[in-house]
Amino acid sequence: MKQISDRWRQLVVAEITLVSQASPMTIDFDSFYRAHHADAVRWAVALVGRRDVAEELAQDALAAVGQRLPTIDEPAAYLRRTVVNRCASWHRSTIRSRRREQRANAGEATAYTQPTNEMLDALNALPYQQRAALALRYWADWTDEQIADALGCAPATVRVLLHRGIAALREEIAR
Amino acid sequence: MTDELHPQPADGVPDELADELADDPMIARMRSALDEAARIDPGTAKPAPAPDRRRWLAVAAAAVLVIGAVAAIAANRGNDGSSSDDSIVPDTTTPHSDSVPNSEDLNLNWFVLDLPGFTSQPDRKEVCCPPLPAPGPATTIAWGDVNGLDRGVLLLTVTPKVEGEPQLDYAWAGMTDERAGQLISEVVPGSGLPYVMPSQSMRFLGTGLAGFGDLRGQAWANSDGTVDITVGDYRGQLDVLTTGSVEATTIAGQDAYRVRRGGGDAVVWQTPDGHWATVTIDDRGLTEREDEIFAAVEPGPMPSAPTDTTTVDSTVDSKPIETIVIPRDDVVYKGNVGGIIDSGDGRGPMLTWFWLDSYPPQGGSIPVEGFDWDMIDGEQTANTTTWLEEPLGVVGTFDGTTFTLTEPPSPPFSFTDDVLTYGAVTEGCTDADIAPALAALQALDHVALGIIESSDYRWDGHCGVQLRAMFDSEGLRNAIRTLGDDVMVGIAFRPVQP
């Protein structure tokens, strides 16, 4: 996976370099990538619960942000929004395939321990915004304001999401 | 209670108050699970599946957060809130906020029967909603085949119960029972609507309180019978499709669906402004003229432009308050939205703050003009829906129904006065403490006040309700004063300072 990641990064750097040739602005995507790749993967893990999917989504998000680096005032904030958006899209587009996968994998062991399986099941059962608020706030250590910015809601709404999310998580775990 | 809204720092919450969830054992379990998930390399971990069905109460708890995007409210005026939490209904002993309106108050596309020999009857208007006892009204949700309602329409009626899970009743038309059964098996609880349809073959059509909602109606009669036209919120009009055979047609230049039935045919269609219209013919002697009658239905006079303010009775204290929050349309506003969506249903692109859990997503709060998809990057398309699910900053004017961009969308703005607080921290919060404020909140006219979202609010000692509205206004501030002593308020749009 590391080789694939490095190769992918080289391609993106090359792409950004081509873009930058048309602009006198210096674009240091490589530094941006190095600084934010690990965070982006961590955020995506919080949102999808799978390392493999998180790697792909984080790279997609970094590529999308990289293409806009010359015009973005706050690249880190933009990356947060993009990761949250990409993960939301993944959840949407995989609703049905995940159900099929659930049926296909019924009764099989997974690579995770049982407590982790239970928690990931419960998180997957939450509405996306609740899951995002809980995981980004208490695992990825985002502030309420950062979560609000990424979800497009008010900070007060984030706190409501947290409040309702923890209640819903308890219900799911108790089932 | 204080007299005015007091701007606070960005989050409006005192720093010294502790985050009571941080040390919750459930949070610790979540951290541990995500730590493990983050360590596992790809290829070995299998996804954790979502359960097929979740309990209604869990959904209701989530859904109460979304009292409604303004689009859903605009299309289904009066639907806000009541379908989100069946445990909270307006006090039946208090007067409702809306008195009987003038004819122009129902801001709807209108249709008339232009046929000699028919006499128009008095205009009828129903304004949502009369006081409703617990557990509140049923909600109806409609989905249609992406290739046309004559290829299939599925209707779900959710009837709340005082105790226990709600009753779910399905009806369908234009499809086999087998396909209906398959689609029903795919319906899942949503975070915005109580239930959503993930199937890509179906699209969301409308939702509203079953039998309740703003409605304008008029009948035209002659000695042989009566033709009745209604326009208004979605309140289950598509139910008529299940009473006969369905075929696609046009009426008044609009795509429509005609149901052929023994007791007189009916036509139902969605109007350009997103409302729902029906024409029904009684069977006393007009059967032979049905085609002629439907062809004589024409667009009526357009509604008058929205007014700046109006005065109606208060829901709580019966004092007159301003409730129509339509800013001046010559003022430029800026604010943040959750994205843009064009559902391909003729309404065009719409700004939205909320997304329903479906693919493609469903949403759309207010129509936006001056927008082109070339202005942004990253939009997605599935079926007839194009969307960008990403917070955006928008600048433009608002005429009461449509936001007109004056410059292309941008990354979201950072506002330092995003949250206003009203009142003080309340200690020892219980459900009973919040119930009156929640009831008052649900009784507000969310459309008129431009309220995007609202819910109860318990955080860092606050024990009240929170809401976010499109615009700050005196009408909003007056309404907020009816909500008790602890209210958090967010404003989406604010005037651009010269």
Overview of the structural elements:
The complex is a heterodimer of chains A (175) and B (498). Chain A has 175 residues and is mainly alpha-helical. Helices cover 78% and strands 0% of the residues of chain A. Chain A is globular, with a radius of gyration of 18 Å. Mean pLDDT of chain A is 77; it is low at 1-5, 15-26 and 99-109. Chain B has 498 residues and is of the alpha+beta class. In chain B, strands 26-27-21-22-25-29-28-20-34 form a nine-stranded mixed beta sheet. At the A-B interface, α2, α3, α4, α5 and α6 of A face α1, α2 and β31 of B.
In brief:
The complex is a heterodimer of chains A (175) and B (498). Chain A has 175 residues and is mainly alpha-helical.
Residues in helices of chain A, as a percent range: over 70%
Q: What is the quaternary state of this protein?
A: heterodimer
Mind telling me the C-alpha Rg of chain B?
Answer: 24 Å
Low-confidence stretches of chain B: 1-18, 42-105, 303-325
Greatest interface by residues involved: A-B, 86 and 80 residues
In what range is the share of β-strand residues of chain A?
under 5%
Order of helices and strands of chain A: HHHHHHHHH
Helical content of chain B stands at 10-25%
Q: How many DSSP-defined strands of chain B? A: 34
The CA-CA distance between the termini of chain B, in Å, is 33 Å
Secondary-structure class of chain B: alpha+beta
Shape of chain A: globular
Structural class of chain A: mainly alpha
What sort of overall outline of chain B do the alpha carbons produce when their principal axes are compared?
globular
